[in-house]
Amino acid sequence: MSKNKITRWIDRNNYKVCLQINRKYYRRKSKGSLPYFFIDILLYPYLIVRLLLVLLQIFRFNKNLLQSYSDQKLTTFSSKLSFQISVLFGLRYFVKEEYTPVYYQKNMPLDKLWFNIQNSPKVSIIIPVHNQLQYTLDCLRSLKLNLADNISVEIIVVNDASTDSTAEQIKKINGVRLINNSTNLGFLNSCRKAIESAKGEFICLLNNDTIILKNWLEELLNPIENDLSVGLVGSKLIRPFGLLQEAGGIVYKDGSCTNFGSYQDPNYHAYNYLREADYCTGASILFRKLDYDALNGLDTLYMPAYYEDTDFCFAVRHKLNKKVIYNPLSELVHFEGITSGKNAKKGNVKSYQVLNQIKFAEKWKIELSNYLAPKQAEASVYKYVKQQTLVIVDSYLPRYDKESGSHRVYELIKIFKSLDLHLIFIPDNGKAEQPYYDLLTRNGIEVILNYAGKLKFRNDIVAATKHATYIWACRPGLNKKYSFIRKHKPNVKWIYDTVDLHYIRLEREGKLLNSDKTLTRAKRYKALELSLAKKADITVCITDVEQQLLINEGISNTMVVPNIHALPLNTVQNKFDQRKDLLFVGSYDHTPNVDAAIWLCNDIMPLIWKQNPDIKIHLVGNNPKKEVLSLANDKIKVHGYVEQLEPFFNSCRVFVAPLRYGAGMKGKIGQSLAFGLPIVTTTIGAEGMNLADGEQVCIADDPQEFAVKTIALYENPHLWQKIRENAAASILNYSPSEVKIQLADLFNRLAHQ
Q: Which sequence ranges are marked TM in the entry (predicted)?
């Protein structure tokens, strides 16, 4: 086993062991029953394994397992010793530096703590406080460090008759509007008072015992800002030791409530996709002031505190008929119970939680009759998923801006959502690649990640797919690898998306390069692909050419779902004489693109330069290999990955795609057609799109002919315009609206099988 494998094995097991230790310890601690933690004999195996893992890492001169961050400055020997013991036994394992007050105290001294005054803020952030000045200051520090500059906010602190120095200290902070209550009004009335004078279009209620993290406010705004059907958005609450506090709240039939995911793994997929929730805790919620006014504000029935947030969420849903949304990308740390305590005791504010449950249950008894009985957490969460569930399996998250296959999957996802399907995505590499992970998450798509080893990854997949109606598995290898899902869900409808027929691509490569090894691989792939196609409920082909090949092999359950190309929104494009140079686009992780780029530069471009030495070729695409990078010179520009392709498509005169082997529909061809850039390609490049030589594209299969047709298209404005106009009509068959019709038909066929 290599050093890296050993490290990964230690990390995976350490994660799982520390999760168990943290759950048990902090649950006991919150209930005041910590002594039971130490007499739990089932716990000691976890503690022993944790120590062994630490020793293994130390022997390997790796002390990462003992690195952690303290919530406070350690000034005494006993505090330092206590902290080191907690680190040793994994009790600080899930703590990130940005979760700790010390981080904000260090990076935001009080003399730098100030905010810009906004006369017309978009959001009014309201922070009710009663004593606990240090928590309020740390909350404000986190706002200063983590709020985005492009969102205008006003910050209102409501000092509810604090007896410490809150009034004096907060008054010194420029840009914070301070409201001082002469008597203690309680949380509910403090919020009402502040909201009355708030200037923002949106109101955000924020507890003072919180630390907001990056993108907290942006992700509260994202779901609601442009969607009038959304009435309220709440955050993901993380405990200061790193475990989850709440991923949306659950309300039961009797009016009792629970925090979904409390003390659980913060990375588990069920807690990490945008969805509807029964309610979101008022520690961090955002809503429109207009909606608040329409509901006459927080109900004073629940004075002084507790259940006012649950009641308001119910009013948003059942009176305004709007959605209450939980967004896991809006994260903050919550030091729960700092002001009111964690457990209800006679005489404390927390005791109103019990009294107000009775009031809430009576007020909403008709609506609550449709809710589930207590202890049905998973079913309560899943009741909002009324639609069918589709599980997508692919190599990685859809890198829509880097390769054709991923772009197609991303476009399919958008159509699946428009067909009202609930989506789960399984990336085979198990990684939360950005920005793709956040994009899927905020669109309500569950993503199953591999962060604690293959066994847990498999178990998470089994758990996630138990409600699945369809499996959409891309590529032959992944269809075979994930066939275990069928053992646990035998009635699921299986859709095998070939992406392209791999054996056709390998056959062509083997013949071109005269490689017996590649031809042998092609035979193996053909046997595998035909076997998978026979077992699938439907096999999706990307072109009618490949569909016919499968039909010829006796596979009848096929359907064509091509690449998808929406026409660019910007229709202002340069004319013929405003353009120059040639363009080639392709991901260089795909070997046919590497071969095409080399053949183009070494065999075709010298012939073109004989006719026109001023022409340059631009090679654009993700991850160019050494052999592609080495092509670069004054006339060959290797750009690699670029975020925006439109400037290239709008400035170059001709798109060239000299593909000598490959299979399926070529995304680069469709993309160029969508941008209206005339193309010279090969027979293989134009395959499956009903493109005719001299009409929608120019086709050539040897260097001399390819160069001649490129020069002709480059120098003849009439031919260029003809090809351009014909190409625009040919791409309409691959628009999202056309493919949506085909997909609706596919699911209809499956429903009647």
A: 34-59
Length of the chain, in residues: 753
C-alpha 685/C-alpha 291 separation (Å) is: 55
Q: E strands of 182-228, at which residues?
A: 202-206, 210-212
- pLDDT per position as a tens digit, 725-748: 998 888 888 999 999 999 999 999
Residue of 170, 168, 164 whose CA lies nearest to 115: 170
Task: Give tens-digit pLDDT for 202-219.
Answer: 999 999 999 999 999 999
| Integer Cα distance of 716 and 311 in angstroms | 70
> What is the C-alpha separation between 245 and 281, in angstroms, rounded?
10
| Residue 350, both tokens | 């927390």
**Strand 698-699, strand 636-640: pairing:** unpaired
Q: Rounded CA gap, 59 and 600, in Å?
A: 54
Residue 195 contacts residue 297 (beta carbons within 8 Å): yes
CA 384 and chain centroid, separation: 20
CA separation for the pair 414, 423 (Å, rounded): 10
At 302, the amino acid letter reads Y
Spell out the domains of the chain, with CATH numbers in brackets: 5-93 (no CATH), 104-339+346-382 (3.90.550.10), 389-560 (3.40.50.2000), 576-734 (3.40.50.2000)
Listed residue (587, 588, 582, 613) closest to 600, CA to CA:
582
CA 165 to chain centroid, in Å, comes to: 43
Place of tokens 């690898």: 481
Q: What is the pLDDT confidence band of residue 1, given thresholds at 50, 70 and 90?
A: very low
Q: How far is CA 36 from the centre of its chain?
A: 40
- Asked whether the beta carbons of 242 and 22 are under 8 A apart, the reply is yes
Give the list of residues 6+ apart from residue 620 with CB closer than 8 angstroms, or none.
583, 584, 585, 639, 640, 642, 645, 648
β-pair partners for 288: 202
The whole model's pTM is what? 0.91
Alpha helices in 383-482 (DSSP H): 404-418, 436-442, 454-464, 476-481
Instruction: Categorise residue 640: left if φ over 0, alpha if ψ from -120 to 50, beta otherwise.
Output: left
Q: How far apart are CA 233 and CA 363, in angstroms?
A: 23
Instruction: List pLDDT tens digits, range 509-537.
Output: 999 999 999 999 999 999 999 999 999 99
Has residue 162 got a pLDDT over 70? yes
Separation of alpha carbons 681 and 626, rounded Å: 24
pLDDT of residue 30: 84
Q: Give residue 175's region: left, alpha or beta (phi > 0; psi -120 to 50).
A: left
Q: Please provide residue 173's backbone torsions phi and psi, each rounded to the nearest 5 degrees.
A: -90, 110
What residues does 560 pair with on adjacent strands?
Answer: 541
Evaluate whether 486 touches 526 at the Cβ level (below 8 Å): no
Q: Indicate the residue type of 334.
A: H
Which is nearest to 282 in space by CA: 310, 242, 316, 256? Answer: 310
Q: How far apart, in whole angstroms, are the C-alpha atoms of residue 589 and residue 234?
A: 40
Shortest CA distance to 736 belongs to which of 472, 407, 425, 463?
407
Q: Say which residue the tokens 């350490």 belong to.
A: 14
Residue from 591, 659, 653, 646 nearest 620 by CA: 646
